[in-house]
UniProtKB/TrEMBL annotation:
One Pfam family of this chain: Cytochrom_B_C
Keyword Secreted recorded: no
Biological source species: Anoxybacillus andreesenii
Family the entry assigns: Belongs to the cytochrome b family.
Protein name (record): Menaquinol:cytochrome c reductase cytochrome c subunit
Key words, A-Z: Electron transport, Heme, Iron, Membrane, Metal-binding, Transmembrane, Transmembrane helix, Transport
Topology in membrane: Multi-pass membrane protein
Ranges where the Cytochrome c domain occurs: 179-254
């Protein structure tokens, strides 16, 4: 330093600061191949994957028509509801002893709350920097357990569900003018047939509709006396004249 020239200070940016500013993101350039630019690299990949799923979903909606059922009847206590496929695992859970009935709160709130709560807390419990699943056993275990449980419960729900009864109870039946003053309809009312098959004879729950059965009067009479499927024998205890009027009435019910 020469006299009269003053003093000069030189700063070196390679010297790390003692305290790192919290709002300055970490520089990942020292990890080549382990990171990428958000725009356009990462965002373009997300858009492409989203577009593939969207096109697939649109194709499914165009090819597979949505299943429609008859108009909802609040008075039909025999109707068995069926949720969409993504809720089938919860539907199956509510069938077990300690998750239904008096324990309904456990199956509807406690168990799902614990399961989803554990998944939400997983990122905070396992905060390791590793990306490989084998290096993160806690997070991997949570996810595998959740996937296995959902897959098993969904499969059990599909296998154990009575699909034929579900199809029958939701079948759309054409409106038919029913003569409720006829002897055949009065016989149906007298022997509580309408309590199972509905006052409009469109069926309810597991009980099929009595319209467009395609049965002859003799076949209807045989079913009325001997039962069929969920209908036990011996329900009809009327006279032969009443049985004939009932069977001919049902055989003649047609929406055509």
């Amino acid at each position: 330093m020469h006299r009269g020239k003053g003093m000069k200070f030189v700063g070196d940016s390679r010297v790390p600061a003692s305290g790192r500013m919290p709002n300055i993101p970490k520089d990942y350039s020292e990890y080549p191949g382990k990171t990428e630019a958000f725009w356009p690299n990462f965002l373009l990949k997300e858009w492409l994957i989203g577009a593939v799923f969207l096109v697939g979903f649109l194709c499914l909606t165009a090819v597979h028509q949505p299943p429609l059922e008859k108009i909802a009847d609040p008075s039909d206590t025999a109707y068995i509801p069926m949720p969409d496929w993504y809720f089938l695992f919860l539907y199956q859970l509510l069938k077990y002893t300690y998750a239904s009935g008096p324990y309904g709160v456990i199956g509807a709130l406690v168990i799902p709350g614990l399961a989803f709560g554990a998944l939400l807390l997983a990122p905070f419990i396992d905060r390791g920097p590793e990306r490989r699943p084998s290096k993160r056993p806690l997070a991997t275990g949570f996810m595998l357990l959740a996937l296995a449980s959902i897959t098993y419960l969904t499969w059990e729900s599909v296998v154990n569900h009575d699909w034929e009864a579900a199809k029958a109870q939701g079948a759309i039946v054409a409106d038919v003018e029913i003569d409720k003053e006829s002897d055949g309809y009065k016989a149906l009312e007298a022997y509580t047939c309408t309590s199972c098959h509905g006052g409009d004879l469109a069926g309810s729950g597991q009980n099929p509709a009595l319209i467009d059965t395609g049965l002859t009067a003799e076949e209807v009479a045989d079913i009325a006396k001997n039962g069929k499927g969920a209908m036990p024998p011996g329900i009809f205890k009327g006279t032969d004249e009443e049985l004939k009027a009932l069977s001919e009435f049902i055989a003649g019910l047609s929406s055509k």
